[in-house]
Every structure is written in C-alpha cells, then in structure tokens.
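Hi support team,

I'm opening this ticket because the web form for multi-chain structure prediction keeps timing out on my end. I have pasted the exact lines I submitted so you can reproduce it. The total is 442 residues across two entries, so I didn't expect it to be a heavy job. Is there a limit I'm missing, or should I split the entries? Thanks in advance, R.K.
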Amino acid sequence: MKQVIGVIGGTGKLGAALARRWLQAGLQVQIGSRDVSKAADVAGKLNAELGTSAGFGSNAEVADGSDLIVVTVPFAAQAATLEDIRQQVQGKIVVDTTVPLMPPKVMRVQLPPEGSAALKAQQVLGEGVRLVSAFHSVAAHRLATDEQIRCDVMVFGDDKAARAEVVKLADAARLRGIHAGALVNSVAAEALTSILIFVNKTYTVDGAGIEFTGELTAPAE
Amino acid sequence: MKQVIGVIGGTGKLGAALARRWLQAGLQVQIGSRDVSKAADVAGKLNAELGTSAGFGSNAEVADGSDLIVVTVPFAAQAATLEDIRQQVQGKIVVDTTVPLMPPKVMRVQLPPEGSAALKAQQVLGEGVRLVSAFHSVAAHRLATDEQIRCDVMVFGDDKAARAEVVKLADAARLRGIHAGALVNSVAAEALTSILIFVNKTYTVDGAGIEFTGELTAPAE
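Hello R.K., no limit was hit. The queue was backed up. Here is the completed structure from your submission:
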C-alpha cells in the first residue's frame, strides 16, 4: 500500500505548498487542520487543480490515518498542535518544520528554552516518535509556485533511516535534501531563518535561500 | 594613514590564511601570537612569499598597534585570548571568528551557556568594543590557497558601520561578505560549522561551504 503523508497545519502557506508539490510528484497526501472545513477547502482546490485525490480531516484524524506526518504550524501553535497528535504519531516518522520566530522581531534569532523548536518537539512527543526536522529555509510563497527553487533543505534527525526518507521527500518537492546530522543540529537551520529574513530586507530580494557548495552527490554509506 | 589589521592567533590556519589574502589585497597586517617567535616566523614567510611588510608581535602588542582586530583562536582559547587584549581593543572594531566546536563531537552543535561564541566575546570585552562576528563557515585550508572559494561570509554585529567594514574585509579576502544582522544572530553561522563538518564527512567532500541564493547586490540603505 502506498505511503500516506499527513500534512498537519496543511492549510497554511508552507503546508499547502509542500502538499501541492508532493501531490504533483504522485505521492498520497492528506491535509489536516484544526478547522476541518478549511482542510476540505484546501484539499478540494488542490485536487481540482492537479486531478489528484488528497484527503483531509482534523489534525488528529490525519495524523491517525497517515504513515508519515509533517507538522507545518507557526511556532506559537507548535506545542498545542503536537499535543493534539501525540498519541496518533507514536512509532511514526514526524517531520517538524517549526521555526522559532517570535514576532515582531523576526529578523533576530530568538531560541526557545529547549534550545530549538526541534528539541521542543522531541520533549512534547517523547522518544517513541521518529522525529526529523526539515524545511526551515524555503520561502513558502515561492514553494507554492511551479518554479525551480534554489534552496537546499537541511534535514536533521537521530534516526538515520527516517532522515533518509525525509531527504527523499525534499527531493520529491523539487528541492535538494541534505543530510545535516543529529536533531540537536536543527538549531542552525532554525536560526538561519531570521538571517534569511534579514537578508531579504537588507538586499531587497524576494525569498533568498541557501545552497551548499561542493560536489554533494550520494552520501557515503 | 593606512588602517592596520591585527590578526590575533595569526599563526593558526584561519588567521594565517586571512592575513595572507589581506596582504595580497594590499592591506596592512600584523600577526599576533602568544608565542612571538611563531608570529615572527609566519610574518616572515608571508613577507618572503608576497613581498609584503606584515608586522608581528604578542597578541597584546598587535592589538595595541592595530586599528581593527581579528581574533582567530580555537574556542578553548577564546576567553583567555580576549582577556589578554581587552584593554588594548577598547573603542576598536573587533572581529570574533570563534566557532564553539567542542571536540570530540565536532559534528554536533554544542552552544556555550552564553548562547554563542559571539555573545561570550561581548561579555568578556564589554560594551566599549565594536564587536563583529564573521568568517565561521570558510574552510581554512582552502582559504590558504589562491583558489576562488564558493563560500559566503555571514557578518553579524549591532554596529552597522563596523559590520560594513567587515563585509569589505571579507570581499578583500576574495569571499563574499553578507550583512546577516545583529550579533545575536551569530549563533546561526556558528552552529552551521558543525553541519558543514557533517556534510563533508557524509558526502565525502572537501570543505563544503554555503552560498546565499537570490540577487544579492548592494544592500538597500
């Protein structure tokens, strides 16, 4: 049976854009939201545009019915959202995309007491989850288009096999997934988001990203 | 009179490589070291190779005789080195390049209690110094060559004019300096170093770097 990807907070900019790209790549996707009617709306629009069959439901329903769960909510909603799905995601791969931006000073790195949003997610979900952290640096409004985006996706996680799955998911979204080490390393990518916002403003660019230089082909086994 | 750049810990790989590129660009450089004979040796070799007139001295002497001070020492030596030059650098621009790598786990981000090496430097040097943080991501052994390196230099600092000077210094070293915001943002570049080391090992590359994507030309004023 085909793997089902559940996008929690899938009605937000990042979630909907990832879902769209994964649907385009032929993956099976479900859209979750606190507001089921919004989830239905987003899934309906994606299916109408792409001729796909994305499902939808509440966050907990989607987490329950999915094999791999991607959480795309603002930092302020992270803890409550993870609490909502904690039971349903035990034993599964969960991809946390949360960036600890604390408005209004979003150009300033402000890390949570846990050290990073990824470590906070680990605390909430517990050790029974195969937690991976990724998709911090990509500009959602550009991801929502069909353009080829020049932005690498750093993928962090202590479970190497789970991390490899998420590197593939980045590739499926027509980005480049990069193995970037342990979950604790996620702080680098999370903090980088404030720098990208600063760079966008300072250099008047729209959605700056980062790329690794060097011949990064297949990882050594 | 020409601005004098003092490289503290200038006998190390990063310091010597930066000094060499700045001398090649026609800048006035002094090499500082705890061990004056080592500093003399490095300055002598650079001068013999390049036909320049780099000076040398103890770290405190070089800090005293320079207008802009660049500190390039390992994390374990950072605090003691900064204490050594604290008096001499008051009122001057100090560029801290320290990355909080804590061997043996250098592929794992480990941040100091102060939050970052840059914030630790600020605590040691006090508010009377125009502190800038930069040059974290570049591989020293590649910087030591004449090659064109594809690696952007994120430059952090709360003093915008000081930051702009250091962006120019990165450019003078034939890198690309990028305004990256407040000093507190330095944690992103510092943490990224562990990820670059991880990427080098995982993908078997030599000195991966990062570049910002997008049309980053002149910063908006």
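A quick check on our side: The mean pLDDT of chain A is 96. Let us know if the file doesn't open in your viewer.
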